[in-house]
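ok so i was messing around last nite and threw this chain in just to see what happens. nothing serious, just curious
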Amino acid sequence: MKALKNFLQTYSLFIGFSIIVLAIVEWLVRSKIVPSFIIPAPTGVVSMIFANWQPLLIEHLSATMLEFFIGFSIAVIGGILIAVIMFFSKTIEKIVYPAVVISQMIPIIALSPIFVLWFGYTIWSKVAVTFLICFFPIVVGTYDGLKSCDKEYIEMLRSMGANRFQIFQKLQIPMALPSFFSGFKMAIVFALVGATIGEWLGASEGLGYYSRRMSGNLNAEGVFAAITVLTIVGILLFALASWIEKRVTNKWSKAN
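result:
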């Protein structure tokens, strides 16, 4: 109850504003001021979700979440590993960091057909898009966080007899956590977007595929139903990332 009360106090203005906007849209569509094929009525979107909950949530959402989970997990593990290696090796940093930056300068839409060419219409083409789109914030957030540690603190620990590993564990990792989790929270949302983009360009299931199919059928309610589900899932994932951040930072600060 306390968590719910805090949530309502924090986001009450946003919730109220959203309700007003949805009510206005509902009125505009019902009054025929705005055609329903451009923006459907919110009640129609909700009805579409309930009427098609089995294929929408069980078949398509589960496919998108599997692509998300695999791509995001690889990005987090690989991103942390590369950031730590760059932090300890200036030579590796000079080689890898520019490549990481360049990878984000190429539009994902341009790379997606290449992934389809390499992996076909399998899950791995979507995983590749998901990985690429959320890999960058993990690497940069972790690397910048590790570099942000004040040299005076490092020298102080060295004067107390701490070795390189102890400094890394007791000082540099805790100092890097805020920056890492900033990238982590961005990446967890980007990963969902990446999975959806991959499905748009070539898939037989998933919310991106579902919304593309509904768009081809000029079914605006179906398109917005998929968008609504993706939005709700994205909000829940971001909330989960924030909860993980609080748990990890609190435990690490107590342990050190």
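not much to say yet. The chain has two domains: 1-34, 49-255.
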